Amino acid sequence: MATVEHDAAPAIDAEQVLAYLKAHPGFLSAHPELLETLELQHAAGSAVSLIERQVEVLRGRSQRLEDRMTQLLENARDNERRATNVHRLARTLIRAPTLAAAILGLQTCMRDDFGIDEAWVGVTPGLLKRSDIEGLQRLDADGPIARQFDDLLRTKLIECGPLSEARAKLLFPKAAERPQSAAIVPLERDKNLGMLVLASRDPQRFVPRQGKVFLEMTAELVAAAVRAKLVS
């Protein structure tokens, strides 16, 4: 008697199963019993059901979203606080009755609102005649400050990073503790008004690749205030 041979069922590979499930997302909902029988290997070595694994994945995703939202809220608060502080600085500089008051106001705002320990302003000698204001000096062409900062005065580019002991002593001889890092910002690049130096005892407060928006904004405010007081 002849034997009837039946064709073997074609093998189904993982890619086909994956493609089918993607094409039929409601399949597991229609067969909930599979959710409890399918098992996945847990990182700890034990087996967990697909439902447990889904809950674990969703919980991790939820935590990441929550962490991201928290970070965004913190950034928003930081930006709002910084904007408020910049506004206070602008108001302080505008309302200062004298050049000395403007420099003192700058130093106070930097210290109290921004946590920056020292602030110093250098002005082109042709514009500044007096030399009795703490934190404000002339940038005499042949003076020690001009020689120390020759590169910046020539290139008019912002410099951020470590502050050498020589520069710190030159700019802040009365500082209780030597500043370790600084931002050196030109004032009015096109008119060469001078430069602003913000310094901190924290070595990481000013670093080479940090953002420059705050520094540029502060320099514009300081330049406007100094210019206005010089001609008033």
Kindly identify the CATH topology of the largest domain.
Beta-Lactamase
Order of helices and strands: HHHEEHHEEHHEHEEH
How many structural domains in the coordinates? 2
CATH superfamily of the largest domain: GAF domain
SS elements, strand count: 7
Tell me the span between the first and last alpha carbons: 121 Å
**CATH architecture identity of the largest domain:** 2-Layer Sandwich
State mean pLDDT (0 to 100 scale).
Answer: 86
Q: Which stretches are poorly predicted, pLDDT < 50 over at least 5 residues?
A: none
Give the spatial strand order of the biggest sheet.
4-3-7-6-5
Major sheet size, sense and barrel closure? 5 strands, mixed
InterPro entries: DUF484 (IPR007435), GAF-like_dom_sf (IPR029016)
Protein name: DUF484 family protein
Pfam families: DUF484 (PF04340)
Keywords: Coiled coil
